[in-house]
Design a protein that fits this description.
alpha+beta; 22% strand; 710 residues; single chain; 32 strands; 6-stranded mixed sheet; disordered C terminus
């Protein structure tokens, strides 16, 4: 579905006053959100609307080699303290310190977590780190992909020996639950938060759209001593027996249900020693029949004591969520005046494009939030909440719900086609529940905003001078259906998917081990969001569409999506990290990691160049990929028969990108490229007569070369 990104401004108060929230102090940026209230505001005024167009790049720092492969999804927010920039970077989530004026690398920290890092549910460089100082010592604190908390000396980059064990705390331990140290499905993409002397760490998991089991790791939140790494407290986002909220989990479903982590940023009100937790959904984003009840503290904003971890207040934004409306971003601590009364408030943007505003000390809504009836669904075994909270102010800042009136009507013909397309789906207001997808219809529920929002992890910002809050939002439309999982895929009755493409098989954001390129995976969870476009290609035709009506629906679906693409490296139809596409019906190939050849080991730069070239694979389509793959295999067979050795010519001619270039350049350029490949190969392994036959599939004719020249 198409979406439009926008920034919306919410005027919370229009009169002038002295605001307590001041944003990032003294021109520095010492925490992820600029300040612990996540206002993302700085009073610096050197850059203005008048000189913005004259700005030039002062320096650039490349992160390509900070990990086993380049990263295509850099999301970190660097911190700046005392003229030094600190950031996570690279697909191994290394930490770098840079001179803020020149970009010079001051130090770098690297931790290879091996199998544990490869199995992590949240990979790549993450979204940042934390800085702490007591005026003497300075520390950089971050969480690795394998879920370890590391404290580094900010001056040298060396682990602090007084913190944990050699500068490290294993976050899979002391978590009030048993977690496998290697394969346990818990991690964190967000930056930890340091307030006073306490480090606060949340948790994230694999995607909840297609969980492997209803039994999952719970996303508890913990506080640690910033100097020693000692655990100070733990907050159970799924209450334990005797704790508040346990009765909202019927049939004792709190025993096995997991998730409810805090994968977004956390805000801290240091004055009251209170911090605010934006909690995600429970296991099963779109089906909750295994967890009947309202499910506290899933999808709740919870205020917790900084030193004890005890709950102060909470508000559940969604009861028994089945829309993946977990809270995706940091709450903002703002100072506003309403009806002449100053209020220290907390404002929470959301995927459902409501801004929820509370008194941050008491938790009372600043403006009334009403419980309103919402429609129930008909999914077998599902439990539905009869009401959901609706803020009365401010109004929703983006589109909510889908009706026939929202369809285009530019011409009568377009209107008729829009009605025909929409007739295959269920339409309704906000909180219309998902449906079991069926070929005969409905295929799913049309949602606005889509499952990812609305507002997602970028969140918003707040100007304390004007008291205007800004929030990003995607004006998106999504289609949501659920289907039974494939055998052995999950023990839930239903997971995300539809009757055409089948159950979803991809992972969530940050789950990629392949540098963040769409669909690339290096051995962990598959990347990307939504239904895998490769999954439909792998399923037999009889499974996807067993009738004429199903075939028609499939053709319509393919036309709507401009043909499902099978270009994902995570797709099992791509067997290794340097893939050769297989035709449909070839089945799933066992994952075989690429082993570098002699020249690649000798010249590591070749490896990274190849990775960059492979970054173009995402634009290939099935037919072209199959033709290239056939050429590759034929070329390899020919080269093997003639005893040709591997070398730079093979890198040039056997690489898919080079073959694509050879096939789409003017004839003269193609001949020059092919002669170059043949000449290099002949230099490495000249044969009698100088003949080179179909090198790596780049040539399907015989090219004559002598002494390395064509």
């Amino acid at each position: 579905m198409r979406w439009i990104a926008g920034v919306f401004a919410v005027v919370l108060w229009t009169a002038a006053s002295a605001a307590a929230q001041t944003g990032a102090p003294d021109g520095e940026w010492r925490t992820y959100g600029g300040d612990l209230g996540n206002t993302r505001y700085s009073a610096l005024d050197q850059i203005t609307a008048e000189n913005f167009s004259d700005l030039e790049i002062a320096w650039r720092f490349k992160t390509d080699f900070l990990g086993p492969r380049p990263e295509f999804r850099f999301e970190s927010t660097p911190l700046m303290a005392n003229g030094v920039l600190y950031s996570t970077a690279g697909s191994r989530r290394m930490v770098v310190a840079l001179d803020g004026a020149t970009g010079e690398l001051l130090w770098v920290y690297r931790l290879d977590e091996g199998e544990r890092g490869a199995a992590a549910p949240r990979q790549l460089s993450g979204r940042g780190l934390a800085y702490w100082s007591d005026g003497n010592a300075e520390r950089i604190v971050y969480v690795t992909p394998g879920y370890r908390l590391i404290a580094l000396d900010a001056e040298t980059g060396r682990p602090d020996p007084a913190f944990g064990q050699g500068g490290m705390v294993d976050l899979k331990l002391e978590n009030d639950q048993d977690i496998d140290l290697v394969t346990g499905e818990v991690g964190l993409h967000a930056a930890p938060v340091v307030a006073k002397d306490v480090v606060i760490v949340g948790a994230a998991h694999r995607t909840g759209g297609n969980p492997r089991s209803r039994r999952n790791t719970k996303g508890y939140v913990r506080g640690f001593d910033v100097r020693t790494g000692e655990r100070l407290w733990i907050f159970h986002t799924i209450p334990r027996p005797g704790q508040f909220g346990r009765d909202t989990w019927l049939n004792d479903s709190a025993v096995y249900t997991g998730n409810t982590g805090v994968w977004a940023q956390i805000s801290v009100a240091e004055w009251w020693d209170i911090f605010s937790l934006p909690v995600e959904a429970a296991t099963g984003d779109y089906y909750g029949g295994n967890r009947p009840g309202a499910n506290l503290f899933a999808e709740s904003l919870v205020a917790v004591d900084l030193y004890t971890g005890e709950r102060k207040w909470h508000f559940q934004l969604v009861h028994h969520g089945i829309w993946d409306h977990d809270i995706p971003c940091a709450p903002m601590l703002i100072d506003i005046t309403v009806d002449g009364r100053p209020i220290k408030a907390v404002a929470q943007p959301s995927k459902q494009v409501f801004l929820y505003v509370f008194d941050r000390e008491t938790g009372e809504p600043v403006w009334p939030i009403e419980e309103r009836p919402v429609p129930a669904g008909d999914v077998p075994g599902e439990w539905y909440s009869p009401t959901q909270p609706f803020p009365t102010k401010p109004p929703a800042y983006d589109r909510q719900g889908v009706t026939v009136d929202d369809l285009i009507d530019f011409t009568p013909e377009l209107r008729a086609e829009a009605l025909e397309v929409a007739s295959h789906y269920k339409l309704g207001p906000m909180f219309t529940p998902p449906v079991v997808s069926r070929i005969e219809g409905p295929l799913g529920t049309l949602l606005a905003p889509a499952m990812g929002g609305g507002t997602n992890w970028p969140g918003g910002s707040y100007d304390p001078q004007t008291q205007i809050l800004y929030v990003s939002s995607n004006s998106s439309l999504g289609r949501l259906g659920i289907v039974p999982p494939d055998p052995g895929q999950s023990d839930l009755e239903y997971i995300q998917g539809d009757a055409i493409t089948g159950p979803r098989r991809t992972g969530g954001a940050g789950s990629q081990a392949g540098g963040g390129q769409r669909g690339v995976s290096g051995g962990g969870a598959a990347g990307g969001q939504g239904n895998s476009r490769g999954a439909a290609a792998q399923r037999p035709e009889s499974d996807r569409a067993g009738s004429a009506a199903a075939q028609a629906a499939l053709r319509h679906h393919q036309r709507d999506r401009h043909e499902p693409r099978r270009d994902s490296l995570a797709d099992p139809a791509w067997p290794d990290a340097r893939p050769h596409p297989q035709p449909p019906g070839a089945g799933r190939a066992r994952h075989r990691p690429h082993r570098p050849g002699r020249e690649e080991r000798r010249h590591p730069g070749h490896q990274h160049a190849a990775h960059r070239r492979r970054g173009q694979l995402d634009r290939h389509r099935d037919g072209r990929a199959r033709r290239h793959a056939a050429g590759v295999r034929q070329g390899q067979r020919n080269a093997s028969r003639r005893g040709l050795s591997a070398g730079p010519a093979e890198w040039l001619a056997d690489d898919l990108h080079a073959r694509r270039r050879a096939g789409h350049r003017p004839r003269r350029q193609r001949q020059q490229l092919l002669r170059r490949a043949a000449g290099l190969q002949a230099q490495l392994n000249p044969r009698p007569g100088g003949q080179v036959d179909s090198i790596g599939g780049a040539v399907k004719t015989v090219t004559a070369v002598k002494s390395g020249t064509a």
